[in-house]
Amino acid sequence: MLATPSTNVIDNLQQGVARRRTFAIISHPDAGKTTLTEKLLLYAGAVNQAGSVRARKNQRAATSDWMAMEQQRGISITSTVLQFEYKDCVFNLLDTPGHRDFSEDTYRTLMAADSAVMVLDSAKGIEPQTKKLFEVCRQRNLPILTFINKLDHVGRDPLELLDEIEQVLNLRVSPLNWPIGSGEAFQGVFDLQAQQVLLFERTVHSQYRAPVKVTDLADPLLAETIGERACQRLREDAELLAGAGAPFDREAFLAGTLTPVFFGSALNNFGVEPFLAALVALAPSPRPRESDRGWIAPTSPAFSGIIFKIQANMDPQHRDTMAFLRVCSGRFEKDMLVHHPRLGRKVRMSRPHRLFARDRETVDEAYPGDVIGFSNPGIFRIGDTVSAGDSFSYAPIPPFQPECFAILRNSTIEKHKQFNKGLEQLREEGVVQVLYAVDQYRREPILGAVGELQFEVVTSRLQAEYGVEATLERLPHTDARWIVGSAGDIEDMYLPMQSLRVRDQDRREAVLFASATSARYGVEKNPNLKFLTLSALNELA
Ligand SMILES: Nc1nc2c(ncn2[C@@H]2O[C@H](COP(=O)(O)OP(=O)(O)OP(=O)(O)O)[C@@H](O)[C@H]2O)c(=O)[nH]1
Ligand SMILES: [Mg+2]
After folding, report:
1. What pLDDT digit, counting tens, does each position of 454-466 carry?
2. Position 89 in a domain
3. Atom 32 (ligand 1): residue with closest C-alpha?
4. Same domain, residue pair 332 and 307
5. How far apart are CA 177 and CA 194, in angstroms?
6. What is the CATH number of the domain that holds 439?
7. Of 287, 340, 377, 403, which residue is 20 to 30 A from 174 by alpha carbon distance?
């Protein structure tokens, strides 16, 4: 056990916790998460010139889309951690990919967050992937702040958008600001709490902050500044909202049943600063987390944390693998000796890094809410708990059920070592699952994934990061089941046509079926065996 900490340390710990804001930005692809992230960095002073997700030749790329394939395609593929300070708060911002094929990475990242920022495209409203991610947030009662983006485009009526959030997500809304004009005529936002008009000006490429003019509804020059029609509409809207809206209910927000809503255009820097201020004021600091020993408060003095992400080759100069640890309780200190229950021994946490997308810098200490990186010599896996006081485990982070499969072939035979190393690292990261056919003569790896794009990430990263050319042969299978039973029964198992017996990375037996019907048939024909989905198998363990 650790010695009882001095009052001073507890004080620092409490302050440290109170200052932390750890949130994930989530949405359907292309709503503007990475753009909003970049602009939050700009306004917080963490970058002095904003990059762009589709950078032109002489422009900087967005900080959080650092991977080559992300920059080529203009989409996010892997979540990114950005730590920065703003107004006495320490932000740990987690930018996530929206694409369904990368949802496992987004899901893991949500496990590290204390709140979520839901970005909506004002022309599209709630899209399918936003809804799915919202459901994950709801299961964890995560507080959600909503940013309705792209007001500079012709979008839907703001009231209609609010209605959709309430209806589709069954989530109460509380607009805290309101757009002034829309599309070409989008000029700024009206702060409904301070009753202030914030008018923004467009700048070239929006690389720098937008100049802002502050006034109020009573300003006699307002009509002249924003136009007669916009002014009248704003006065009407303000009156309507003042009459309709209950005051912002913080308790309901913290319980995840009400979301404060903000409007803006991340691309044009409109409404970004008010949103940053809202994150300081509203986003919660770290909360207690459930473990197999009950709830652990962030202010509990003994350090504990969870590994939620692994990423290789972030830094082209180091080419190592980084394990991302979210500090859950206590103050972390460099070189701490901690319990590692999965390994059943203690490990020393040396060389912690503060993370800013692909950049890193060593740190000596960290507080609950912080995400720090450790170059991982194979001792960490996604879902591992480490703790300095008693040994315990936080809830595991289960892998997703794979739904598509492909054989991966190395075309550069002389690079057989790099191929194996690359594949092993990508597997460790959870980019794909790797299986091997049991009866086949050639032992080529079979990749299992939630979606096709994950396969492309594997071949593209094998090439970019390991200099290996590889090809894929898609398999017809759609359903994987893990088998539990005696070795004899497994050997005698009767399988329908086109099924494939495989073993996973932990040498557990599984079968790939070509369809759900074929899987049902396999289950019926082998009554002595259990055929489990991955989550059912993990629950059993
Ligand atoms: N007109 C307009 N376009 C925007 C705005 N914000 C972002 N965009 C554009 O929308 C596209 C998608 O933006 P991203 O920031 O990459 O979206 P994302 O949500 O991070 O996308 P994924 O990470 O791939 O899911 C880019 O072309 C942006 O330039 C905005 O306020 N107005
Ligand atoms: Mg993105």
Report:
1. 999 999 999 999 9
2. no
3. 150
4. yes
5. 9
6. 3.30.70.3280
7. 287
pLDDT 10s digits, 84-105: 999 999 999 999 999 999 999 9
How far away, in angstroms, is 40 Cα from ligand 2 center? 14
Closest Cα to atom 9 of ligand 1: 32
CB 254 within 8 A of CB 172: no
Residue-level pLDDT at 304: 97
Q: How many domains does the chain have?
A: 3
Domain membership of residue 114 as a residue range: 26-82+101-282
Q: Is residue 396 part of a domain?
A: no
CA R_g for the chain:
25
* Ligand nearest the Cα atom of residue 35: 1
Residue nearest to atom 11 of ligand 1 (CA): 30
3-state secondary structure of 261: strand
For a mutational test of ligand 1's pocket, the pick from 267, 272, 457, i.e. the residue with the most ligand atoms closer than 8 A to its C-beta, is: 267
Instruction: Say yes or no: 409 and 274 in one domain.
Output: no
Dihedrals phi, psi of 10, to nearest 5 degrees: -60, -40
Q: Decide if 375 is inside a domain.
A: yes
- Can you read off the two tokens belonging to residue 119? 């970005």
Domain boundary (356, 387, 418) is at 387
Predicted pLDDT of residue 382:
93
What does each C-alpha distance from 396 to 181, 277, 312, 399 come to in angstroms?
47, 34, 22, 9
Nearest ligand by distance to the CA of 33: 1
Give the pLDDT mean for 161-187: 93
Check whether residue 276 and residue 299 sit in a common domain. Answer: no
* Residue 312 identity: A
User: Which pLDDT band, with edges at 50, 70 and 90, does 441 fall under?
Assistant: low
CA gap 166, 400 in Å, rounded? 29
Instruction: Kindly tell me if the per-residue pLDDT of 207 is higher than 50.
Output: yes
CA-nearest residue for atom 12, ligand 1, is: 30
Same domain, 330 and 249: no
Domain identity same for 72 and 152: yes
Q: Which ligand is nearest to the CA of 155?
A: 1
> How many angstroms separate the alpha carbon of residue 93 from the centre of ligand 2?
13
**pLDDT tens string 64-84:** 888 888 888 889 999 999 999
Same structural domain for residues 304 and 271? no
Neighbours of ion ligand 2 (CB under 5 A): 33-34, 76
Residue 246 token pair: 């209950």
Ligand 2 centroid to residue 33 C-alpha, Å: 5
Do 166 and 176 touch, CB atoms closer than 8 A? no
Atom index in ligand 1 nearest the CA of residue 52 equals: 29
Residue 61 CA: which ligand is closest? Answer: 1
- Residue 92 within a domain: no
Judge if 114 and 149 occupy the same domain. Answer: yes
Last residue of a domain, one of 239, 259, 282: 282
Residue list, ligand 1 pocket, CB within 6 Å? 27, 29-35, 53-54, 75-76, 97-99, 149-150, 152-153, 265-268
